[in-house]
Amino acid sequence: MSQEPVQEGVTDAQRAQKIKDFMTLLPLTREIAGLPQGEIGRNFNEGQMDVRNSTLKLAYKMARQLLKDISS
C-alpha cells in the first residue's frame, strides 16, 4: 500500500482533525455512495476496489458539501 506524501506545513493536530472529520462523516458517506457490503469470506478484486475507492471519494466530497450547505 502506498503512502500519501506528507504535506508541508500541516501539523499533527491538523492531520488528526482531518481524520476525525472523515470518520464523523463516514456513515453519511457510505449512505451517499450506496455501495453494497461485501460478502463474508469473499474479497474484492483490484478493479472492484478501485471503483469503490473512487465512489467513496466522490461521496465524501458530496457529504462535506452537504454539511456546508446546511450549515450556512
Please provide the count of β strands.
Answer: 0
Shape: globular
H/E series: HH
Approximately what portion of the residues adopt beta-strand conformation? under 5%
Low-confidence runs of at least 5 consecutive residues:
none
Summarize the biggest pleated sheet: none
Rg on CA atoms, Å: 15 Å
Spatial gap, N to C terminus: 38 Å
Percent of residues in helices comes to: 55-70%
Count the helices. How many?
2
Determine the mean pLDDT. 91
Query: Which structural category do the helix and sheet elements fall into?
Result: mainly alpha
Task: Give a short summary of the structure.
This protein is mainly α and 72 residues long.
Key terms:
72 residues
Can you describe this structure?
The chain has 72 residues and is an all-alpha fold. Helices cover 67% and strands 0% of the residues. It has 2 helices and no strands. The chain has helices spanning 12-33, 46-71. It is globular. The protein starts with 11 loop residues before the first helix and ends with a helix. The mean pLDDT is 91.
